[in-house]
Amino acid sequence: MLDIFYYEDGLKKGVAQDLEELKEKQIWIDATAITKEEILLLQETFDLHPVTAEDLFHVHVRIKVEEFPEYLFCVFYGIHKNKHFDLLELDFILGSNFIITNHKRDIPVFSELKKNRYRLENLFRKGNDFIFHRLIDEEVDHYFPVLDDLQDQVDDLEEDMTKRMNPLFMKKIFKIKRTIKLIKKAVLPQREKLGFIAKSDCAFLSEKSQPYFRDVYDHSIKVADLLDDAKESVNNAFEVYMSTVSNNTNEVMKVLSIIATIALPLTVISSIYGTNFANLPGGSFHYGFWLMILLMVVVSIAMLAYFKRRHWF
Questions:
Q1: pTM (2 d.p.)
Q2: Quick check: 107 pLDDT over 70?
Q3: Of 19, 193, 250, 280, which has the maximum CB count within 10 A?
Q4: Please, which residues have CB within 8 angstroms of residue 12's CB and are 6 or more apart in sequence?
Q5: Quick one: 200 and 281 in the same domain?
């Protein structure tokens, strides 16, 4: 679906059938779930390179910034949360008087801008590069609450691990690590490409817009720093978990070792008096069995007292 907006004595909305007549005007075309027919229409109208047209149709295109004679082609990724965090590909084609945006599903930032007539008209007055800046700036800023949420999850996890140990903690840790790995695929190359845009003298970006793109680049650097912090935090949480599991295992082994050590002399005593010799010391004594039990109890208490004195438990 193509949503077409153009500026001519004010903001107006166009239709795909009139695109050939509107192409000379200042125009923004927003494509959602674009079809091959719509790509062909855009390619013929704005003289798009076949490689660009191919990238518009395919998903999971690598992050890139390519400058062609007639336009600047950029591929970035925004992040959105449904049941899980998902990366959503965003294609931008910026020409001298046109901007084309492409995405596979509705994006709140794009929808809100299309509904806000006053803001969109104001951006058109400044130039199409300011529309580009507005959209990419909002999408980069969406990474901040996501990373803050991940950091909160790690902090809560570490706090829970100090209270009790649960095997589900490991599952949560690996889930967070997978999310960080997913975000990392977009954040690091995106920072590099935004830096290229902020520092380059691109013909399709005005001098007035350059400071704004440098600000977006600064945000992308901060996002990368927060991602590193989140990665370090989850690694620390993993180490805390493994250390706690190891300590708990050591405590269990300590208890079992104490039990085995106490049981050893008791086993010796019971084994001696369990032999079949005819003459055993005290074997004919009426209370011999109870004396043996008493001896075992005394030995057990003495060993426990010794262990306690040595601070072995």
A1: 0.77
A2: yes
A3: 19
A4: 5, 6
A5: no
